[in-house]
Amino acid sequence: ADVSVERYTSKEWHDKEVENLWKRVWQFACREEEIPEPGDHMRYDIAHLSFLIVRQQDGSIKTYPNACLHRGRMLKEFDGHTSEIRCPFHGFAWNLDGSLQDIPADWDFCHVDQDNFSLPEIPTDTWNGFVFINPDQNCEPLAPFIADLARQFERWDLSKLYIFQHGAKIMPCNWKIAQEAFCEAYHVNGTHPQILKALGDCNSQVDVWENCARVITPALTPSPLLENVPDTEVIRSMLDMREDEELPPLPDGVSPRAWSASMSRETLRPAAGDLVDEYCDAEMVDSIDYTQFPNFHPWGAFNRIVYRFRPNGNDHRTCIMECFLLAPYSGERPEPAKIHLLEADQPWGSLLGFLGQVFDQDAFNMPKVQQGLEATYKPGVTLASYQESKVRWLHHKLGEWVEGTE
C-alpha cells in the first residue's frame, strides 16, 4: 500500500507523532563520553520537550525534565558541568541526584513537602556507549526494545570508539524525508551518479527485524545498471580521482574489493590493532547501514557513521539531521568532538569532505521532496517492493505507534 502524503505534510500527523511516538519511545540522546565526569550534563530536545541528562557521583546517569518545579523555567540552556542544578530564575536548587537542595526563603513555601520535591526521573539506559532515554516513565526496559540491534552488534563494540566528528544541520523538510534518503541505495543512480562505478546500488541486501532493519550495499563493485566497467574505473570512482590523475597500481589477480580492504586494514591498524585482521573484506569496505526504530542509524564494522534525525522543535516542515563519525583509537580516549552546527548555506562537504559532498547531493533533494509532496494530487507515496523495504518497515512501525494500526 502507498504511504499517505499526510505523514510528511500534516501538522495533525506531527502532533500525533509527538503524543504517541516521541513521548513514548526509547531514543538516542547522547554518547556516554560526552558526559564523562560527575556533574557533566547535556540537554536533549525532541519536539517541544527538553530533557537534562546528568552524570551522577557514582558514575550512573540520570535524566530529568529540563524544567524547574517552581515556575517551570528551563534549568539548563547549554551543555556543561555543574555541582548542583540551580534554576537561574529564583534560585531553587537540586542535587545531582535530583533531590531538593535549597528553596530560597523556604519559610514562604510551608505548603511544599521538601522530602517529595525531587526532580522527576526519566527512564535512562545505555547501549554500546550511547545513552538512551524514554519520556514515558512507565515504559518497558531498553534491553528488549533494542534486542534485535544488540544481537547484530555483538561483533562490533561501538563503546570502544570515540566521536571523531559531529555535524548537524537544520534541513527544510520533514524528519522522515531526511531519514529516508539514507534508508535505501536505489537513489544512487539518480542522485549520486559519480559513485555508480564503485557501488552495487541495486544489489543491496535488505534485512528487517522487529525494531531494526539493515541495508548492506556492496562497494568496490559496479552498479548492475552499468555494463563492462573495468577495475581501474571502479578504483577511480571509489577514490574520487579525475581522468587525468594516475591511479595507484592494482596487483595482478587482486580484485578492487580485496585491494581496498587491504588498504583499509593498514590505515586502521595503528588505532584498531589486530582487530582489523578479524574483520572480513565486506566489513572493511561495504556500507552496513542499520536503523533502530525510530531514528537511530548506527553503521556496522568500521563504517564510522551514526545518523540521527528528529523534528526541529514543533515544526513538521523542518528537521535536525546529525552525523556522528566514530573512530577507533589507541591509548587514552581522545576528547569527543563538539557538535558543529552548519548554517543553512554551508555545505556538508565543508565539514565531512567527500562523504559530506555525497550528503550535499542528498540534501539537495530534501526540500524538493517536501515541496513536491505539498503540491501533489496523488494521496500516497509508492515504494519499491524490495529496494525500499526499509522505508516500508519504518512506516509500518510508525503506523503501529502513531495510529495503532498493523
Describe this structure in words.
It is a single chain. The protein has 406 residues and is an alpha+beta fold. Helix content is 28%, strand content 24%. The strands form six sheets. A five-stranded mixed beta sheet has the order 16-17-18-12-19. Strands 5-4-3-6 form a four-stranded antiparallel beta sheet, with no helix packed on it. The longest helix is centred in the last third of the chain and has 27 residues, at 349-375. Helix 2 packs across helix 12. The protein has helices spanning 6-9, 11-22, 142-145, 147-152, 175-180, 188-191, 231-239, 256-272, 275-278, 281-285, 349-375, 389-403, and strands spanning 3-4, 27-31, 40-46, 49-55, 61-65, 80-81, 85-86, 93-94, 100-102, 124-127, 130-133, 162-171, 205-208, 212-217, 287-292, 296-298, 305-312, 315-327, 340-342, 380-381. The chain is built from twelve helices and 20 strands. The protein is globular. A hairpin with a 3-residue loop joins strand 13 and strand 14 (212-217).
Quick synopsis:
28% of the residues lie in helices and 24% in strands. The model has no long low-confidence stretch (mean pLDDT 95).
